[in-house]
Write a structure and sequence with these properties.
Helices cover about 65% and strands about 0% of the residues. By secondary structure, it is an all-alpha fold.
Length: about 110
């Protein structure tokens, strides 16, 4: 009888997004650990991370704006530069997307080794 009801419930029209959200809420059960006194340092660390998110978003958006501005400037100045060893199909200023990728690679030091 129990198997029959489980089979009937499997065909209920439930939105998969709702099921995914419910599963995500199960992950939040780990936050119950923070109620214990010995987890005070962990709680402080998590609260520090949460409080640092707005300034981090501000700095990231400013960096994105600067990279975009220099990408547009690079496209205007260096679009027709001939391809060479380091200026190839993926690293160039032919369009804004490629220019932003190239500038991000320069910011992170990609390809310097």
């Amino acid at each position: 009888d129990c198997a029959w009801h489980a089979h009937k419930m499997a065909w209920l029209p439930i939105d998969p997004l709702l099921l995914r959200s419910i599963r995500l809420l199960r992950v939040l059960r780990i936050l119950r650990i923070l109620k214990f006194e010995w987890a005070r340092l962990l709680r402080d660390l998590i609260m520090t991370l949460i409080f640092s998110l707005p300034p981090l978003i501000n700095v990231s958006s400013m960096l994105l704006l600067l990279v975009f501005m220099f990408a547009v400037l690079g496209v205007e100045l260096f679009t027709f530069v001939a391809q060479q060893e380091h200026i190839n199909n993926t690293r160039n200023f032919n369009d804004v997307g490629s220019a932003m990728l190239l500038l991000f690679q320069c910011l992170t030091g990609d390809g310097w080794t």
